TrEMBL record:
Residues 91-137 form the F-box domain. Pfam families: F-box-like (PF12937). This is F-box domain-containing protein. It comes from Eleutherodactylus coqui. InterPro entries: F-box-like_dom_sf, F-box_dom. It comes from the Eukaryota. SUPFAM superfamilies: F-box domain.
Length: 180
């Protein structure tokens, strides 16, 4: 699993909340936390101020709780919790695995679960709406339809045909499910 980790684990930049116009850039690597801050001001005396950079190891960052409050104010509570978890060694491996493996795992989910998963983050939204993913799903849907045909004694053909007409062709259903 450690091979899935890249050098930069997390990176975010944003402008500080009003009235400040300062720009902040936070980078979490395997070994350290780096915060870069640029003071942005219309006043002439602040124009020559150089950017500030603070580097801390993960353990130093976890121990120095004074630094957490300003970061929470700048980046938000969820972001600081995520950063603290990364510093504790609690990584989100599911997002970091290769797309081909994610597609393989997702191909075992039903369409309702795929829809819910695609709403969790941009990575899964992009993956669940990709053509490559739906090409993998097509054979599975055909196999499931074939197994339903063999069990036609429990499901009448008329009911199945009506439900297929109501839902439309497979490609239209796929498009309806993936547009958000």
């Amino acid at each position: 699993m450690a091979s899935l980790l890249q050098e930069i684990l997390f990176e975010i930049q944003c402008q500080a909340p009003a009235p400040s116009k300062d720009f902040h850039h936070l980078v979490i690597t395997k070994n350290e936390v780096t915060l870069r801050s640029w003071k942005i001001s219309a006043r002439a005396e602040h124009r020559k101020v150089l950017p500030r950079e603070v580097k801390k190891t993960h353990t130093e960052f976890l121990e120095e709780t004074i630094m957490h409050k300003p970061l929470e104010k700048i980046f938000g509570k969820d972001t600081i919790e995520y950063v603290l978890n990364l510093c504790r060694g609690q990584f989100d491996f599911i997002v970091r695995i290769p797309d081909s493996l994610k597609i393989r795992i997702l191909s075992f989910l039903n369409t309702q679960d795929i829809k819910q998963l695609s709403e969790t983050c941009k990575v899964f939204q992009k993956l669940c709406s990709s053509e490559e993913f739906w090409e993998k799903m097509r054979p599975r849907n055909e196999i499931t339809a074939g197994s339903v045909n063999r069990k036609s004694s429990s499901v009448s053909m008329k009911t199945k045909q009506l439900s297929q007409k109501a839902q439309g062709p497979v490609w239209m259903r796929r498009r309806r499910n993936t547009i958000f």
